[in-house]
Write a structure and sequence with these properties.
By secondary structure, the chain is an alpha+beta fold. It is built from 24 helices and twelve strands. The protein has helices spanning about 20-30, 50-75, 90-135, 160-165, 180-190, 230-240, 250-310, 330-345, 375-380, 395-405, 410-425, 430, 440-445, 450-465, 485-490, 500, 520-555, 560-590, 605-615, 635-665, 710-730, 735-760, 765-805, 820-830; strands spanning about 10-15, 35-40, 170-175, 195-200, 205-210, 215, 220-225, 245, 310-315, 320-325, 350-355, 675. Strands 1, 2, 9, 10, 11 and 12 form a six-stranded antiparallel β-sheet that branches. Strands 4-7-3-8 form a four-stranded antiparallel β-sheet, sandwiched between helices. A two-stranded antiparallel sheet has the order 5-6. Strand 9 and strand 10 (about 320-325) form a beta hairpin. It is flat. It comes from Drosophila rubida. Belongs to the V-ATPase 116 kDa subunit family.
Length: about 850
């Protein structure tokens, strides 16, 4: 957790790698994932870089893998999960073997697919021919053998007298898609002027397309005609409507014989198809065992060559030079990776690393784990921290779930959140393997520890509020005593418990359960939660202002402590901090058991009215026997606080610009130029580099070259924003009270309007009715109170951190550290 206080210290390094060791060295760096490379070839077209041929080679391998994977998924074969045994990047010899294997597999798959399509096309033609022969039996007479002309075979020459006797009547048989039948009939009618007799029969079972496998519904037809000219026209129409024509003998015996031959050929072809499918399945099953490993190896290889394209070749063409950002804590890891890469290929010249100085702002890198990653993502969504400035994520781990719980204070709803978060945390290894859960599921799973803590804190605040699904728990017994007799209670609807006689001490922890029955419950809780919201808000903002001191000290901007922090904290504490103090003072001073009248609750002044009078220098006449102020010197103290607060405004407005104006000419500092060596010509293992020149400037902006007019304008905007935001941000924390009240009232409405109806049901219909109403109550509770109200409280908590808290000290003008990491590349492609 200490690493999260501020971002990691970064070093800009130059690495010199021999070309023969470049591939293995970058592969080792990709496995470590702690180096962000810079592009040294920005002016070179991406297609003209040194390793573009290798990248294209990897693209071709990826295309082949995608084709094979598509064929595997088409056959319903499940690819194995290799998350626990991820292969390393292949060496050059493995690349050649992999390329040959993929080439062979792809060729075999293409050949099998083409053969399968051809055989299925033949199978479809034979099936259609069988259907034609079987369905045309009813179109001809079984006793009379007609000498008819067949379309495809071209019937033999018949006897001239018979032909004249029959009038040269011929026919064409075939199949056509069912949706084309009506248009086909109309076209035949038009070209023949009604001289074609068409008979058709729809096929009951659909046929399968050989290329796509989709079902095709077809119709068998026979068209009778007279004349050779009409026959040619009919064939042209059949071609235009994509109808398939098949030979059909006119003799019944010939048709029967032909049907038998077709069925025999279909059986043989079906056997060949099944054997082809078995062979294809065996090939795909064998390939599927290694395909995920091959895919990852190719991705790593492609990433390595993409990274090598960022390197620059020296003038001697014997060395590759690269620049990268590296966390100083990981410099020894990078040095070891370079040594391992050179040793893997037996290079006699070792690769080495130089740390260079620069005036560029380094990237921001906050080292996180699975617990803190979710909170860091919340901060980065607002803006990545400037280099080395304080990181709010460390404190957000506690303040975020706590502020959420203040608005979501219900023990029952908190337990639901707690169980959901605990389930995701305890089953995270199994749930992390879910790849297609969707974006919403990934958000929930990524924030599982946030949900767990929100549930825990909601259980705590629900226990303090003594609120469980809008009901209270009587754990310690109420400290309020009923001093009325039964007759008085039954005859009077409005009775009050005077605190002086009915209150027997203080409830041990949380809210007394008797308030659940009180008619002034909402009035009491409103006052309590409103004051609580202001107290929490002022403390949160004071903490945010104090965090700016850590930035000023780290960046050695000690003048800003006196010129910015001191007036800001005085303005906040003397006005709103004083208001918080008066709330506590009011709680402690006024009591129902007080002997003096001016210390009884009836004489307690309103803190809000007192604060308004303080700002406007006004007075409010007190009640008879009461005092206007809570203590003697309060009037003078309040005037002093307001005057000091008003002085803080010009202090913030003019202090820093005047300081810059009078000290600008005196500053003489050494300017480090980009690329200047730090003196560590070669960084030895375990050696610490000299600090970079931008360590002192960090995330804060310098004003050395900025015109004074712009400095005055910038400081005026900053002062106006702080003064106004102090007032508006304090009022903004009242959302803690508002959402807590809304949540409690919605929960009470659901109980009284829904569940109580089932609890009041009597008779035989009572249990079934209670079961149905209980289910509806559970549904509304989960959908409205847990999910919708939980999302609302989450968003309001996020706003309180982003605007009210982080604006006091956080700039968020940095850019993230994006290291070259195989794990990040593979995980990112899987999410896409």
């Amino acid at each position: 957790m200490g690493d999260m206080f501020r971002s990691e210290q970064m070093a800009l390094c130059q690495m010199f790698i021999q070309p023969e060791a470049a591939y293995t060295s970058v592969s080792e760096l990709g496995e470590t994932g702690c180096v962000q490379f810079r592009d040294l070839n920005c002016n070179v077209n991406i297609f003209q870089r040194k390793f573009v041929t290798e990248v294209r080679r990897c693209d071709e391998l990826e295309r082949k893998i995608r084709y094979i994977e598509t064929e595997i998924k088409k056959d319903g074969i499940t690819l194995p999960d290799i998350q626990d045994n991820i292969p390393r990047a292949p060496n050059p010899r493995e690349i050649i073997d992999l390329e040959a294997h993929l080439e062979k597999t792809e060729s075999e798959m293409i050949e099998l697919a083409q053969n399968e399509v051809n055989m299925k096309s033949n199978y479809l033609e034979l099936t259609e021919l069988r259907k034609v022969l079987e369905n045309t039996q009813g179109f001809f007479s079984d006793q009379e053998v007609l000498n008819l002309d067949s379309s495809n075979r071209g019937a033999g020459v018949v006897d001239e007298a018979t032909a004249q006797h029959r009038g040269r009547l011929g026919f064409v048989a075939g199949v056509i898609n069912r949706e084309r039948v009506f248009g086909f009939e109309r076209m035949l009618w038009r070209i023949s002027r009604g001289n074609v007799f068409l008979k058709r029969s729809d096929l009951d079972a659909p046929l399968n397309d050989p290329a796509t496998g989709h079902p095709i519904y077809k119709t068998v037809f026979v068209a009778f005609f007279q004349g050779e000219q009409l026959k040619n026209r009919i064939k042209k129409v059949c071609t235009g409507f994509h109808a398939s024509l098949y030979p059909c003998p006119s003799s019944h015996n010939e048709r029967e014989e032909m049907v038998k031959n077709v069925r025999t050929r279909l059986e043989d072809l079906n056997l060949v198809l099944s054997q082809t499918e078995d062979h294809r399945s065996r090939v795909l099953a064998t390939v599927s065992k290694n395909l995920p490993s091959w895919s990852i190896m190719v991705k790593k290889m492609k990433a390595i060559y993409h990274t090598l394209n960022l390197f620059n070749m020296d003038v001697t063409k014997k060395c590759l030079i690269g620049e990268c950002w590296v966390p100083t804590k990981d410099l020894h890891i990078v040095q070891k990776a370079l040594s391992d890469g050179s040793a893997a290929v037996g290079s006699t010249i070792p690769s080495f690393l130089n740390v260079i100085d620069t005036n560029e702002q380094p990237p921001t890198f906050n080292r996180t784990n699975k617990f803190t990653r979710g909170f860091q993502n919340l901060i980065d969504a607002y803006g990545v921290a400037s280099y080395r400035e304080c990181n709010p994520a460390l404190y957000t781990c506690i303040t975020f779930p706590f502020l959420f719980a203040v608005m979501f204070g219900d023990l029952g709803h908190g337990i639901i959140l707690l169980l959901f978060g605990a389930w995701m945390v305890l089953s995270e290894q199994k749930l992390a393997r879910i790849k297609n859960g969707g974006e919403i599921w990934n958000i929930f799973f990524g924030g599982r520890y946030i949900i767990l803590l929100m549930g825990m804190f909601s259980c705590y605040t629900g226990f303090i509020y003594n609120d469980v699904f809008s009901k209270s728990m009587n754990l310690f017994g109420s400290n309020w005593v009923n001093n009325y007799n039964t007759t008085t209670v039954l005859s009077n609807k409005h009775l009050q418990f005077p605190p002086k006689t009915s209150a027997q001490g203080i409830y041990p922890i949380g809210l007394d359960p008797v308030w659940q029955l009180a008619e002034n419950k909402i009035i009491f809780l409103n006052s309590f939660k409103m004051k609580l919201s202001i107290i929490i808000g002022v403390l949160h903002m004071v903490f945010g202002v104090c965090m700016s001191v850590c930035n000023f000290v780290h960046f050695k901007k000690f003048s800003s402590i006196f010129l910015e922090f001191v007036p800001q904290i005085l303005f906040l504490l003397l006005l709103f901090g004083y208001m918080v103090f008066m709330m506590f003072f009011k709680w402690f001073k006024y009591s129902a058991t007080a002997e003096l009248q001016d210390e009884t609750p009836g004489c307690a002044p309103s803190v809000l009215i007192m604060f308004i009078n303080m700002m406007l220098f006004k007075n409010t006449p007190p009640l008879k026997g009461c005092e206007e102020y809570m203590f003697g010197a309060q009037a003078g103290l309040q005037k002093t606080f307001v005057i000091i607060g008003l002085i803080c405004v010009p202090w913030m407005l003019l202090g820093k610009p005047l300081y810059i104006k009078f000290t600008r000419g005196r500053r003489v500092s050494h300017v480090n130029h980009n690329g200047e060596l730090t003196g560590n010509m070669e960084l030895a293992e375990g050696e610490t580099p000299l600090p970079t020149g931008n360590e002192q400037s960090g995330g804060a902006h310098g004003h050395d070259e900025e015109p004074m007019g712009e400095i005055y304008i910038h400081q005026a905007i900053h002062t106006i924003e702080y003064v106004l935001s102090t007032i508006s941000h304090t009022a903004s924390y009242l959302r803690l009270w508002a959402l807590s009240l809304a949540h409690a009232q919605l929960s009470e409405v659901l109980w009284n309007m829904v569940l109580s109806l089932g609890l009041q049901a009597t008779g035989y219909a009572g249990p079934p009715m209670l079961a149905v109403i209980f289910g509806a109550w559970c549904l509304f509770t989960l959908a409205i109170l847990v999910m919708m109200e939980g999302l609302s409280a989450f968003l309001h908590t996020l706003r309180l951190h982003w605007v009210e808290f982080m604006s006091k000290f956080y700039e968020g003008l940095g850019y993230p550290f994006q290291p070259f990491s195989f794990k990040t590349i593979i995980d990112g492609e899987e999410e896409e």
